[in-house]
Every structure is written in C-alpha cells, then in structure tokens.
Amino acid sequence: MTQSTLGDIPTTVLTPASRRPSRSPARAVLRQVDYERAFDVLESCDTAPSLPDFREQLVESLGTTFGLRHVSFFEGATFHSTFGDLAPLTEGLTLKMLPEYHDRWSRYDLFGSPAAMRQLVTTGVSSLVELRTMGALPASADAYVRHFLQATWRMESAAAMRLELPGGHTALVGMFDSAPDRLGHWELAALRLLARQLSAVTRRLPVSRRHAALAGLSERQRQVVRLVADGLSNAEIAETLSLAEDSVKKYVSRILATTGCGSRMELALLARAST
C-alpha cells in the first residue's frame, strides 16, 4: 500500500498486492470499493467547522454511503459515561429506541461489555457478530441483544465506532440494521479505517458552534474578547488597545452577533471555557 492525503488527513491507497483479506479485524485490507466508501465519508466530514456539524455530517454520510439508516451518536467525558448521554444525535429508529434504552437498557449495553471495550479501544469498532464469535455474551448483554435489539426493534446487525473528542472525551457511534449481513467483514474493515481517520478530525474540532465562531474571529476581535473576559469596560478596553470607545462598542456588538452570545457575561464565560 502507498500513502496519500485527503486534506490534512493521511490516507492509504490500495495497491494490487494488498487485496488479500486479513483474518485480523484490526488489520483487514480493504477492496478498492471499500476505500472509496471510506474516503466519501471522510470528505463529507473533514470540513465540519464544529463537533455538532461533524455529528450531523457523519450520520448523514453513513446513511448515504453505507446504507446505515439507524444511527446514534453518544458523547461522554469517559467511556462508560457515554452510555448515559441524555441528548445524543439519533437517526432512524434510534430516536424511538432512546426512551426505553435510557429507562432500562443503557447499563446493559452490549458495547459496554469488557470484550467490546477492548475492541473499541484497540481497533475503534466492535460488532455483535464479532463478539459472538469470541464466546458467550455476558448474561446482561445477551438480554439486551435478544429482548431489546432483536425482539422489540428487529435489529439483527449492530456495531459501535469509538471516536476521540477534545479534552479526552469519547464518542460512540451506534449503527443498527434489520438485515443480519448489513455489517459484514468489509463494512467493519472500512469503519475501522474511518475510526482512525475520523478521530484525527474530531480531536481538533471546537465542541460547539459558538466555540467555532469564537475561533474564527480576527486577531483584533480576539483581543477584545480576552479583555471582555477579564472584566474590562468598553472605556478600559479602548484605552488598553488605543481605540475609540465607539469602535470598541462596534467590535463587541459584532462579536456578540457572530458568536450568538446574548450578553457580555455570556461571551466572557464562553471565552474562559475556550482557554
């Protein structure tokens, strides 16, 4: 295989000698069509200005490129707290599944089991079919699969992708389908490539659209923001930056409009949270 780039993300280009499938799910070599699908998803997400935009673009792209219509995007400060995310992004039936999941099943989630956690940490992706080949599932995870996923929602395929977020936080992208073969060998191998590449994107993203807007300000605007965060008045900012006070008022007004903050205090809190 040879190396190329997609934006600022290193990618791997398939060569004829690399077309033999591997037994290791973490090192499986993809076919050309699978690389193309992975690249399509990367292209759709690489320009996301913030984490919320990335979430939406990823979920949409997984549906368009892989045919995955039932997808969720959970976030948490730690791996295990991710399952308790009360406001995940959901697509397809995962929205209807959410209330029962939170009420009864989140602590028994298949992808919170030790074997799944090892797979997610080492390869970025874990799947129901792979976990079953490793031996009997824990009783609680088996009940989650049989009663919740299969009996109630008719989901025969299930997989999760782990992504690294800013500040050491974690995202888990859940993917489900009624077709048992929707998430096969090649799909899982492509998703593992994506997990590695997408984490390079998500680690550097602003965590909100307001943080993204703050990062996009000019240097002079950022100077004004820092002084607002320090509690200076417009007159004090004007004196510090050698500006007219009316100019400072205009700067502050434009910054509030750009970031969507409703007050100087809200802007100051946003600025402090971004440092």
What descriptive keywords fit this protein?
275 residues; alpha+beta; two-stranded antiparallel sheet; 12 helices; elongated; disordered N terminus
Topology:
Elements: E1 2-6, E2 9-13, H1 32-45, H2 51-66, E3 70-76, E4 89-91, H3 94-105, H4 114-123, E5 125-127, H5 128-133, H6 139-152, E6 157-164, E7 170-177, H7 185-202, H8 209-215, H9 219-229, H10 234-241, H11 245-259, H12 264-273
Antiparallel strand pairs: 1-2, 3-4, 3-7, 5-6, 6-7
Polypeptide structure, described:
There is one protein chain. By secondary structure, this protein is α+β, with helices and mostly antiparallel strands. It contains twelve helices and seven strands. It has helices spanning 32-45, 51-66, 94-105, 114-123, 128-133, 139-152, 185-202, 209-215, 219-229, 234-241, 245-259, 264-273; strands spanning 2-6, 9-13, 70-76, 89-91, 125-127, 157-164, 170-177. Strands 4-3-7-6-5 form a five-stranded antiparallel beta sheet, with helices on both faces. A hairpin with a 2-residue loop joins β1 (2-6) and β2. α1 (32-45) packs antiparallel against α2 and α10 (234-241) packs across α11 (245-259). The longest helix is centred in the C-terminal third of the chain and has 18 residues, at 185-202. Mean pLDDT is 88; it is low at 1-26.
